[in-house]
Model the fold of this input.
Amino acid sequence: MRLSPRVRPRTLRLFPCAAALVAAAGLSQFAAPVAHHAAAVAGPALPALPAVCDGRDAAARKPAGGPSGKDPNAVSPAEAKAMQADLDDRLARLASTHVPLAAVPTTVPVYVHVIHDGAAGLLDQSAVDAQIDHLNATYGGQGAGNTDTRFHFEPAGTDWTDNAGWYNGMTPGSAAEKDMKSALRKGDQGTLNLYTAHLGQSLLGWATFPSAYRSDPSDDGVVVLDDSLPGGPATHYNQGNTATHETGHWLGLFHTFQGGCLLPGDYVDDTPPERSAAYGCPEGRDTCPAKGLDPIHNFMDYSYDECMTQFTPGQAQRMAKSWAAYRS
Done:
């Protein structure tokens, strides 16, 4: 999750945000939830894993003394380990039943739900189209050092909802979020539902992880700050990379700084370890003793939009595996 001015994925959850995984798996409390869904696979059911919320630290845009910098989407090492074990198990089950792992899909249908309060937040279709174009550019390999992930996003529909209660101060796990998603979400586990609103808690956005879909399908999706779409007024966070970041969580990626300097980190071998989130664009930052500078240009860090240009081949592979296990 990204915190304001951009929010990143919430922590895992079975139910709204932190409580579910703790209750179901005995893990420590995690950050705000991001839900994911999984395709049915032969074999005994595994405990549902938590959804995840994502948020960029409020400190990125506000001085000390402002809103808390706590990341509602932080995932503890224990939670990440449980998610990885679930992914490995589901992939093994697919292989054992001789079901070929799904290739990265050519197309992911996208429904965009614009929440507004009268004229406030009333984005037009051109803003929505620009965001989907940006998703296709960032996931299609455009940008310095970027990888073509082979995911393509296809507009499936846009709707507009005038609801002041939903629009103003939307937060992860709130009644407003639940009501909004229950009323508006469309499609199945392979359909991306993207919601725009004026978010509370200085968040830029949050998302659900793929493994959370099976426990709460209606919660599945990505929520972003309306001002973060391309050309919006969120300074340094208005090129559309909040949606790129949150969709990465929706496709199974952790933050690049997951686990700090300790292995296995974000469970991707080609992203150098990073002790903590990067803000701004701190070129040359190197916070861990292992080889490699911090991946400040990666879409799964917390850098300014203009600093983010990359997914790695390892991240593309992880997204493909997560798709095969949960969303295909």
Notes: The two ends are 24 Å apart (CA to CA). The helical segments are 19-25, 77-96, 125-139, 164-167, 175-184, 241-250, 313-327. Residues 77-96 form the longest helix (20 residues). Confidence is low (pLDDT under 50) at residues 5-54, 57-69.
